[in-house]
Design a protein that fits this description.
Number of strands: 14
CATH class of the largest domain: Alpha Beta
CATH architecture of the largest domain: 2-Layer Sandwich
GO biological process, one term: rRNA processing
Number of domains: 2
Radius of gyration: 22 Å
Subcellular location: Cytoplasm
Family: Belongs to the class I-like SAM-binding methyltransferase superfamily. RNA methyltransferase RlmE family. RlmM subfamily.
Strand content: 15-25%
Largest sheet: 7 strands, mixed
GO cellular component, one term: cytoplasm
Number of helices: 10
EC number: 2.1.1.186
Strand order of the largest sheet: 2-3-1-4-7-6-5
């Protein structure tokens, strides 16, 4: 059965937030519809009259609670385990004949939900990818060598007899399976929070920006630094860091010669001159953090910032939208703002911002 919809992966448990975000953004884009999901599933499907047009109108970079954005072209139920490939080929033929999708793909990903219910499907996804890939090449649907310049084909198993077929524009989608940047915890990192900043630099900046904006001997501040996970990431990238926290830092950071520890309140301290970076992962009400971050950019205390907003238990999309609007309004200048709930985040989102 061919059925077009927007399909997005998200963190399990945050389906309502993503559904609310998609509904609001789709309405603003002129493509109203409705979301279909189940709490804990790890994904949301958004149905509207023209999902392909919505996919084009809603860039992946603007989505906060989505790990990945795909155009779903087929919803295949009741698959025969003896032959799951034939229905997929038929769905591709039907969509290509209708002009909805390209005829040739540069890569195939077979995925399953990153949820308790979906993880047992990992073995099926791996084996099926190995079986489907040569068949697609023989049928002229998949290049013989991976070609990232072409659209990517996704087959998603929700159950053993239920699969979705979807398409990704690689210029407008996550480059990682399931939208997850899987990073390894470095043994020298003071805390697992280091992974959040590493992922933020990898996800919220492009290659050119990382080369230009993350350089040796830049001056940075880390507000609420203890025990030093984010300070460690900045230091590893060659920066000189002022770590602001009344709590202790790991001794190895102080021994590096690149870190100054100030025992002060991160909400009160301000630098004597403009810094290249300010980062903040303080546990505080998100509106209060947003206001303080706006002050830093408005007063010119830093050239750019990455900070986290800890979300409440309820109305998390609404709080996210309100806090980001507050932040942009109180900065009093045009901004580049990117926000996302990262894989290594929990009840929070991560924001990158700099003046235009």
């Amino acid at each position: 059965m061919t059925s077009s919809a927007l399909f997005c992966w998200c963190r399990a448990g945050f389906e309502p937030e993503l559904a609310a975000e998609l509904g609001e953004r789709a309405a603003v884009a002129g493509h109203p519809g409705y979301a279909r999901t189940e709490r804990g599933s790890g994904y949301v499907e958004f149905l509207c009259e023209d999902a392909a047009a919505l996919n084009r109108a809603l860039p992946y970079s603007r989505l906060i609670f989505a790990r990945q954005k795909l155009l779903r072209i087929a919803d295949l139920r009741g698959l025969d385990p003896r032959d799951r490939i034939t229905p997929i080929l038929a769905a591709l033929d039907a969509s290509a004949d209708a002009g909805d999708i390209p005829a040739l793909y540069g890569e195939l990903w077979v995925e399953h939900p990153d949820s308790d219910a979906g993880k047992p499907l990992a073995g099926l996804a791996r084996s099926f990818a190995n079986a489907l890939r040569p068949t697609l090449r023989k049928a002229g649907r998949l290049t013989h060598q991976e070609d990232p310049g072409r659209p990517r084909l996704h087959v998603i198993f929700l159950e053993g007899d239920h699969a979705l077929v979807a398409v990704a524009d690689t210029r407008d989608a996550s480059p990682w399976p399931l939208g997850i940047a899987r990073l390894r915890m470095h043994p020298d990192a003071p805390s697992r929070s280091a992974l959040k900043l590493e992922e933020a630099l990898l996800t919220l900046l492009d290659d050119e920006e990382r080369e230009r904006l993350v350089r040796d001997n830049m001056q940075a501040a880390d507000l609420g630094a203890a025990p030093g996970g984010w300070t460690w990431v900045l230091m590893r990238n060659g920066m000189k860091v002022t770590s602001v926290d009344n709590g202790p830092l790991r001794q190895a950071l102080l021994d590096s010669g690149r870190v100054d520890h100030l025992r002060a309140d991160g909400f009160q301290w301000q630098p004597r001159r403009t810094l290249d970076w300010m980062v903040c992962d303080m546990v505080e009400q998100p509106s209060r953090v947003a206001e303080r971050m706006a002050t830093w950019l408005r007063e010119g205390w830093c050239r750019q910032t990455i900070f986290n907003l800890k979300l409440p238990m309820k109305k998390r999309w609404e709080e996210t939208r309100v806090c980001l609007e507050l932040f942009e309004h109180q900065t009093h200048r045009p901004l580049i703002v990117r926000a996302r709930q990262l894989y290594h985040d929990r009840e929070e989102i991560t924001v990158y911002a700099r003046p235009r």
